[in-house]
Design brief:
By secondary structure, this protein is of the alpha+beta class. It has 3 helices and 4 strands; from the N terminus they run αββαββα. The termini are far apart. About 15% of the residues are buried.
């Protein structure tokens, strides 16, 4: 049938991010320029995604126990780039304790 239309590919990419974010207790990821805002259930678990901040572009701030702000350079906020950066960050982080690579509890 050929390639997916770009809109379909974007929906598939977003679905993949939701799946990758779930084991880290990340409930939502919203762009509120100039930040990417993560709403989290468990800050300790979600912070592991940002724990190794060396080499991580931008600045991470945690204003409250359920919110993480990641201020990225403006070029990273372009939609395709942002999807790739988020995917890479979620995959690069080691799996949370008690969660298999599939994102399901062990």
């Amino acid at each position: 049938f050929g390639r997916y239309p770009s809109g379909v590919q974007s929906l598939l990419d977003l679905a993949e991010l939701r799946i990758l974010a779930r084991p880290w207790s990340i409930r939502s990821i919203i762009v509120r320029e100039p930040d990417v805002v993560f709403e989290v259930e468990d800050l300790a678990r979600a912070d592991e995604v940002f724990h190794s901040r060396r080499g991580l572009p931008g600045v991470v701030r945690i204003p409250d126990p359920h919110t993480i702000h990641w201020r990225l350079p403006p070029a990273y906020l372009e939609p395709r780039t942002l999807l790739a950066v988020l995917r890479q960050r979620l995959i690069a982080s080691s799996s949370p304790a008690g969660v298999q690579e599939t994102g399901r509890p062990a």
